[in-house]
Amino acid sequence: MAAAASLLSLLPRPAPSQPCRFSPVHSPSSRRKPSISISISIPHSAAPSSSNPTPVTTEEPPKPQIELEFLGPKAGADGAYPVDKASAVSGEKLLRNIMLDNKIELYAAYGKVMNCGGGGSCGTCIVEIVDGKDLLNERTNTEQRYLKKKPESWRLACQTIVGNKENSGKVVVQRMPQWKT
């Protein structure tokens, strides 16, 4: 306790309304000298202040966005395909995750039950890139294997990264191209 008293004598005295508190902390697993924890409260009025505070703000430049349009697999009565829209920060998400996050239908009936959850091992998340292919990553080895007899514009949504963190633009995606009528 003598050590604690000498430590306390080195600390500045708090305002009379805010007493200094300390409590000994003993570790049951240790048989050595007890350690002491000291807590000091400084009243708000005693804290240094500035008459004209200037907040420090560091703004990051806006991240590039990719706008996406998803065409439905079947044309409506008027002959037009239904369109769903979404946007994403360039280079941060897979096409599959963007579609699921925005509740845009990705899988046909079989794929809803039997998909691999984005692991690239089933081939049920096929989409066709109608426009904006240059805003996506190159086909992966997994896609090369599953899509080797399919058109070059077909991709697996679980393997397709939208953007590259620097580009921005618009991508048009045909959902379930194998069902297109």
In short:
This protein has 181 residues and is α+β, with helices and mostly antiparallel strands. The chain has a domain at 65-179: Ubiquitin-like (UB roll), CATH 3.10.20. The chain contains four helices and nine strands.
Number of helices: 4
Q: Shape from CA axes?
A: elongated
Average pLDDT works out at 82
DSSP strand count? 9
Task: Write down the secondary-structure element order.
Answer: HEEEEEHHEHEEE
- The CATH architecture of the domain at 65-179 is Roll
Biggest pleated-sheet summary:
5 strands, mixed
* Measured distance between first and last alpha carbons: 86 Å
CATH level 1 class label of the domain at 65-179: Alpha Beta
CATH superfamily annotation of the domain at 65-179: Beta-grasp domain
Family: Belongs to the adrenodoxin/putidaredoxin family.
GO molecular function: 2 iron, 2 sulfur cluster binding; electron transfer activity; metal ion binding
Organism: Ensete ventricosum
Region (Disordered): 1-62
Structure description:
- By secondary structure, the chain is α+β, with helices and mostly antiparallel strands.
- 15% of the residues lie in helices and 24% in strands.
- It has a domain at 65-179: Roll (Ubiquitin-like (UB roll)), CATH 3.10.20.30.
- It is elongated, with a radius of gyration of 31 Å.
